[in-house]
Give the backbone structure.
Amino acid sequence: MVIINLAYLVASVLFIFGIKGLTHPRTAVRGNLLGATGMLLAVVATLADEQVLGAGALSLSHILAGVALGSAIGATLALKIQMTAMPQMVALLNAFGGGASALIAGAVLAEAGLPSVQTTVATVVSGIVGSVTFWGSLVAFDKLQGGVLPDQPVHFTGQQLVNMLLCVGAVGLGILVISDPADLAAYGWLIAVASVLGVLLTIPIGGADMPVAIALLNSYSGLAAASTGFVLNNDILIITGSLVGASGLILTQIMCKAMNRSLLNVLMGAIGPESSTSVGADEVYAGRVKSASADEVAMLFDGARRVVIVPGYGMAVAQAQHSVRELADQLEARGTEVEFAIHPVAGRMPGHMNVLLAEAEVDYDKLQEMDVVNPSFEQTDVSLIIGANDIVNPVARTDPSSPIAGMPILNVDKSRTVVVIKRSLSPGFAGIPNPLFAADNTLMLFSDGKQAVLDLITAMKETS
């Protein structure tokens, strides 16, 4: 037992250093390997436990078969998943973690006889949080994948009241389970109520708010795992779950700050615009939008000393990241300084744009965070927006009644010239027009993101 606890301690240290390594791209691969090594060590130590070895050859074979099956599924997904689908992958991983926690806690409750109060309380927490995480993550996956549920928020009358009643019901059933652990039917009802709650907490989330949802669900999965650690009296599960839960909560707070939303707003499932601007699109755009061709934009690049590229979800949808890298390389070959401005909630998960650009082998030093790049826009000759909308909408600074009022944005409107690549003038997630598209210094290049960038590359080659 001492050796197993020592192995758990070493694994915990590896997890901590692994997370530390993930904070920077140069050390991310090493950090990932450290975390994977820690998990391998934790699994081997757990399998070496007397309670597992003493369970019999049949039980051990079942465990090893489960490990092999899970490893095969994980390896297949890791090899085949496209980087543009990484948000869906993260949502599924969160779902698997939450669902496993709820099922394991229920299995222990069924076999424990008369469990201690600590075990029963931990079982209830695992059941509630795990079920909310599982179904909430599946809803997030469906929205991201473009499945049955719409990408936009789903609201209905009395939604918050229903959520509150479900929450109270889940807690009430939890108290019933604690008072009578033998009542497995009560635990089953707890799982059912928490599952409905998970769905209803997530359906109001959509579009640009998905990074907040992914980060929060990740935190939930960690908390569920930590609770299951108390159910199993497993130290490494408690430590790992706590690390995931805490880091996910910190990331959620960062995302909330970037969206100018409170954490309570997120926890209540109230993400999404609650009001709409009184200014219509016709009033904002009529007669003021200037369309440009790829040749005209290429001529702008000819005299540009500094270009800032702002990627958005449209770049991900068009899978244009490799073409964007090629465009940046061509600009730099002409002596132009090129940087990428990254908004914290651009895309559908935290770091979505960073992941896509890293796949395209864009030098990470060229990726600038919002606070770093914003002061430099006034010295920028051309800002190229690729599929972004709300994160560059100046209404956030000027209209207190706007759904995005106070949201920190990239100040691209202060550039000498702004070029926006977009299919149409359709609004972003907030559902409001963007005055940037009609600004005097803005040119619209209406096209698919990838095709527009390829046309720009061709036009630049012809003018060189």
